[in-house]
Each structure stands twice: as structure tokens, then as C-alpha cells.
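Memo to structure team: turn this sequence into C-alpha cells by end of day. - J.P.
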Amino acid sequence: MESEARPEGDGAAATPGRQRPSGDRVALRGDMRAALPDVAAAAVVTALVFVFLRARMASGESDTVAVMPFMDDPGTYWMYLLSQAFGWSGLLWAWGTVMIGLLLSGAHSTRLPVSRQVLERWHRTTSLTTTALMFAHALMFAAELVRYETKVSWAERLWVGFADTFVPGWYDSGTGRIAIPLGQGALYLAIPLGLLFYVRHRIGANAWRRLHRFVIVVYVLSVWHTLLYGTNVWYGDWPRTVLWLLQLPVACLLLLRLLRPARRAEQLGSPGGRRGATAGWWVRAAGRAAAGAVIVGLVVVVASDRDGGRDRPAHPPATVPHAQETE
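Reply from structure team:
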């Protein structure tokens, strides 16, 4: 996740008397153009997920309906379904961009079947697509809240939708008290961490590398948000198990990245030396131990079939709006 590609120009000659855009702006514009096929693919995946969720809701098999039985009308709650679809495609793209980043930052990234330059471009474009999908997920969730609050003025409806979705700590009901801030944290970290690449020459390559490492925090928050608030994986069925299984390759690549870093300064070495060096040694050692513990935990969760999923209710819960769902 520490790939660093050179900014690419757009091939246009500088116009006399007109200041040429900076390399950072050119690189961002080029990556946005390169991301168009990726965005198109994400749109197709989102549409397929939406159709799948809509069909399950219409048939009464949806876990969302099991949690909130009043949402048995996909024609009415299509925005909520679309929010879920954007969330799932966003999580899939986040998984992909994290995997590519970990491959790029490993000690043997030169042995990959695809050139490093291609992987770096994929990493940047999938990162931009992921951020867009996360924002679309939040925006459709807010739109559903605005649509639902019909007994108040438009101004109040807009405020409720905005505050519940984008203001940390405002949403205060059920599982959302924890899950919504986790999702907000993932979104608000993803935007600056993703765009910092394009100003890395201004803040310094070392500063950019240190900050870019926190991308893994964005991913962890996203998965945590999904496990807590994704009604499609609340119960201990195969979707939740698959979600846990997908985290194994991420954790394994992260551990390999920590055990065999590409940069000599990140190697573990010995704990002796200056105070700062000793503290860094303990931080790196703790990171390796934590990554190993996560792998063990994931294996135990999947093997034991105790993945934190809830028991499916024998009787549907009370009919309440999704903004008031029970824990």
C-alpha cells in the first residue's frame, strides 16, 4: 500500500501565457479518466447486487425483512436497497484495492505476473472508485431517511437525512449508535488518505508513506461497519462466513508485508539502540504479533462457526422504521 507512481501528463502542450496545471492535478485528472472503466464495472456489480437484494425482498427471504418486516415492499424501499448495493460493491472494491496495495508494498512485488506500473494504476483507480461507492452508499442511505420522514417540513427532512448519515454521534438508535460512526470514520478517512497521493511531493514522500499506512484502518472500519449494520449478514448464514473468509488473504498479506518489508528501515532488526529506535522496534513487533493474532482469530471464527451472527428471530420484531431498529 505504499506504491508510488510518477505523475503522468495528459500530452497537451502548454498554452502561451497560460500557466500549465501542476503535475499533481494532471495525475489526478489522468487517474479519473483511467478509472472510468472501473467505475462502469462497479456500476454493473452494484446493479446486479441491487437486483439480487430486490428479488430476495420481494420473495420474503431477505434478512433485511427478517429484521424489519415492514420493509417487505421493494418498490417503496428501493433507495434503501440501492444503499445496500452500493455498500456491498464498495466493500468489494475496498477489498480489491487493499489487496493490490499489499502486493505492491511487499518485498517481492517485482515477481508479480502484471507489471508494477499497471498494478499501481489499478491501485489508484480502484481507490478512487471505492471512495465514490462509499459516498454513494451514504448518500442513498440519507435519501431513504429523507423520503421516510414525511410528517415534517422539507428542511427538517433534509436535516434529519444529513445529520443521521454524516454527523458523527447524531444517529442514536439501536446498532447504529456504533455502526454508523464506524462507517462515517471509514468515509472521512478514505477521502484524504486516497487523495494524499496526488500531493505527496508537497508533503514529502516519507510523510505520505506514514499516512498511507492508515488505509488499512479504513478497511477495518468498513468491515466492522458491515458486520454490525449489514442486515444481509446479521445471521450466521453463508454470506457472513464468506465475509469472514475474505479477510484471511488480507491478513496473511499484511503479515507477510510486516515480516518481509521492502524497505530496510522497516525491518525488525534488534531492539537495542536509541530510544526512538527501540520504540519503533516494539511498534513493529507489536504489529506483527497483532496481524498473526488476527489470522488465528479468523481461522477460529470460520472453523468454529461462531462468527458473531445473531440467531434468526422465531417471531418478527415489532414493525418500526429502520432508523429505530432494535439491537
